[in-house]
Amino acid sequence: MRYGRTDEELASLPLAYRDDLFKGQVALVTGGGRGIGKAIAFQLARLGARVAITGRNAERLEGAAASIREHTKAEVLALPMTIREPEQVEATVAAAAERLGRLDILVNNAGGQFPQAAIDFKPKGWNAVIDTNLNGTWYMMQAAARHWRDGGHGGAIVNIVAVYDRGMPGIAHTAAARAGVAALSKTVAVEWAPLGIRVNCIAPGVIETEGMEVYPDEARSRFPQTNPMKRMGDVCDVANAVCYLAGPTGGFVTGEVVHIDGGGLLWGDLWTIPKPDYFRDG
């Protein structure tokens, strides 16, 4: 089964906003080589932004950048790096601003996790997820905020988190990290308001991406039944929400967590590992 959208589909889906919404602006999208991150980069480019995308896989990243350039005619910069290293983060923010002329928007999409019962986590696995999903996101946020503060202008940060409110059985490490990002975002949304910096989060539910492949077959087969709409979301659902929060439409929104989850926060039973017999009906 193929998950997610092809590049051709990402380039041709109907736009929810006018096509010059981000004209003259520069966006930096982490984890932009595939999945949700690539969809966000495509959408921002289609709406007129110059875009820098980051990721650890240089070949995949350059392929995504080339495809976005081809389909949108936008200026797209590929910057291989890891968000786990503060020095690389600072260098990447500086390079994006220097090579594209400015920086207006940061979308923190990079992250990852593996499904496993929490009782079996090893320190190395736990630390890897926390270091990427929480620490790496923070390094990016702080570097962008310092850039804007020192340059005397504001910006917008959108952090991609998760629907952690009722727990996330099978990925407790990412639940902890994403909840931390949301609490952090609410805090700095207040601290950084005097700097003209808005900070918001988007919490996607079960979205069709290549990332679905890391989960066991039993979990994947149940994913469409884990929200009251009884289907999986589309990467463009998330990309459109990013554009809303990052653009003038979200100009009076900061410190919020917007759920794009088909109502999964309200109803559903999401397990990313095989569901224990204890919880099965009957």
Any overview of this molecule?
It is a single chain. The protein has 282 residues and is an alpha/beta fold. Helix content is 41%, strand content 13%. It contains eight helices and seven strands, in the order αβαβαβαβαβαβααβ. The protein has a seven-stranded parallel beta sheet, with helices on both faces. Helix 2 packs parallel to helix 3 and helix 4 runs parallel beside helix 5. It is globular. The two termini are 31 Å apart. The model has no long low-confidence stretch (mean pLDDT 95).
Order of helices and strands: HEHEHEHEHEHEHHE
Alpha plus pi helix count: 8
How much of the polypeptide forms β-strand, as a percent range? 5-15%
Return the average pLDDT rounded to an integer: 95
**Major beta sheet, strand line-up:** 3-2-1-4-5-6-7
What low-confidence regions span 5 or more consecutive residues with pLDDT below 50?
Answer: none
Look at the helices and sheets and give the structural class. Answer: alpha/beta
The largest sheet is: 7 strands, parallel
**Separation of termini?**
31 Å
Assembly annotation = single chain
How many individual β-strands? Answer: 7
Helix content: 40-55%
* Alpha-carbon Rg, integer: 18 Å
The global form is globular
